[in-house]
Amino acid sequence: MTTPLLEREVEDWLQSLPISTLRLASLLSVSVSLAEADVGRLAHEVWTAAEDTVSDRDVALVRSSPFVAEGVQTLALRPEVSVSVARRFRDSEPDRFLEAHQALLSVEEARLNETRGLGTSAERAVLHNGDPWVIEGRIAFYLAALDKDRAERAFGRTFAEAGADAEESRIPRSWLATLGIRQSYLLGEDSRSVMFMRAFREYTAGSRTKALEHFQAVFSGHRSRRQDEYDAISLHLWSAGQKHGSEAAVDNLRSSIEISDELALRTNLVMASNTLVYRLMAIDSLGEAVTLAGRNAILARELDDDYLLSWCLQTKGAVLREAWAQSGASPSGDEIAGVLAELDEAMRLSRELGGLETEVLAANTTLQLLALSGRESDALRFVSSFIDDVGGFARPESARRLGQSLGTLKRNVPGDLRADLEELLTRIDDW
Predict the structure, then answer these.
(1) How many CB atoms lie within 10 A of CB 330?
(2) Euclidean distance between CA atoms 191 and 184, whole angstroms
(3) Which residues of the chain have pLDDT under 50?
(4) pTM of the model
(5) Phi, then psi, of 265 in degrees rounded to 5
(6) Are 356 and 348 in contact (CB under 8 A)?
């Protein structure tokens, strides 16, 4: 957000520029970023009859400005000033403003067609610095000035595609949210796309109360109209932020899963289903929770998404342990061994991905399963080895959770192991 002082500084800077440099600044204001090699050609497309063409001197002059972000052979205005310059461009040269967006859109559409012919993500990254969703995000951005309805649909579709790999979804989705919010002056503050992007940014920033209000506004009335990606994702994230035992959260998660299935949003389907497992556990619907957790683990493996798989395997282990504990059933050795193997896989994947919280949850479930099956000495050895490997906990509640589970062994652990148990509890307390 710009301040009056910053706006005056930007206006003074623009008025000081030669006309060709001003055109370059205007072009940059409506672009995500531009390669230096492309600026002259694109400026000529927009200002075809202009005598003052953009030159290397203009590029150097713009690059020296504090309002331009640094980049290797690329140019972009800083986000906090780009909208002010873009508004000025739209007001002073409305036809050129639209032509600039059309020229930039044509570049991205050509790139998308070329990228689709490449086989691997590595090849696509070398050519265009990203997978197709990166280009489609820029397409949605440029459509905002040309066709609002198409832009909103494109932002929603691309946001869902950017989350196709749960492991890396937060960074690309945050980038897309920034693009959508930046175009709010074109799409409108009350548009569902902008409300959704603001909600997501608030959600990831920890402003959960505001985020949940905005997510609810996005999916409001979804049953009476065509349902879309915004509905599927906002229903899931809103439900994830509700208290356990909330019937509305369970109902909305089911709606999110249904919409995700209809739209083939497989990752959101699994993520919403995994969240639903915990909601079902909270209302003692363990039978459905067990079935759903097993299905989620299979789907996550089919998606070849290690982050999602580690999460689902840990959830499956947790719900099975809870079901066995509550029913008093005695699972077979093979059943226990199978779940322990999946939890070990979850811990390995989480460690490789840097997902310490999921790793600790899987370790805690492993400890509980070993204790449930009467293998207290194995549980102590496991925890000792785990603490040595991890070396610390990301958050205090993770250590407390593991310590609480370990403390339940006190009444059953053999006398010769009590000293080892107390030592482990002390090590956990130190964190």
Answers:
(1) 12
(2) 8
(3) 120-128, 166-167
(4) 0.85
(5) -90, 80
(6) no
